[in-house]
Amino acid sequence: MAIDWTGICNAALGDFTVAALPPTLSLPALPHAVTQFVEKSNQPNVDFKDLAAIVETDTGLTLELLRHVNSAYVGLRTKATTALQAIRLLGLRQGKMFVITIGMKAAIQARQSKLINQNCFWNATLQKALFARHVARLLHADEDLAFSGAMLQDYLLPLLTNDLVDDYVNFIQTRDRQPISICDFERQVFGWDHALAAACLARRWKLPDELVCCILFHHQGLAAFAHPQLGRSAVVAVALSALLPDQLRQCYHGLEQLLLLQEKWPAFQLAEIAIAVDAQHAEIGMGVKNDFPLARRCRTALDQDQEPAAELLQSAAG
Known about the structure:
This protein is mostly helical. The chain folds into 2 domains: 83 residues, no CATH class; 155 residues, Hypothetical protein af1432. 62% of the residues lie in helices and 0% in strands. It is built from 18 helices and no strands. α8 crosses α13. It is globular and about 55 Å long.
């Protein structure tokens, strides 16, 4: 049964609009080339030459696209030397996902946060994206959608933690005494959370509804499996990636939930996936240094849970 991405988005977003956000927020804007690419790619019978011409107006976007398709991770025998070749190799859908992801990364990196270290943020984000791709493979779901959705799930957090820094500092200071997820905290304080706000803004940018759904539901955790339409989709893979540790500890007991899932789903082995993620991180990088390998982040939880997995992580993390 085909997933009604548009209907799910409409129902979940309801009447919420960007106008509900504080007027003092300086919302990010997609690079012009990315906006043009998305609009053009949504047209019927689009010519790849036109898309390539748009990409080539942005040198950084062109270089990232070529670097991606020529990486060992993609594993192409013939190297791409032009944006047109790269888009043809990726295909329209995967190419659009990648352009959106890189464009968003550039837009957010251009901003500063008083609370979030950008290097740590993108390191954890890429880990989550690679993790989501692995989980999507286990689910036989869309791996490219899972990767892009996980890369974009927290794109508003650097901006929000900068403009609303006092509130997020309070979240961090009280978290150990009263463990609460970041979305629960945001809803209590603001009346909305960063997932809802980011999904709403992404829809205003006319991003694909399946990508909007990944952003919107990324803090559903294990409950994502119970959704009647999304329960075996890339949305679940993104939701599981959001349980991984990061510098804000958005989901305080996220690793415990992943260990619980491992007990119920034998194909899901956290230690093995963490090691694979670190290996792939080293291959593709995307300009992100892996200062805190996922194997190291997960080691403490697995030390307490099971000795064989902990030994595996110990060997991988060094």
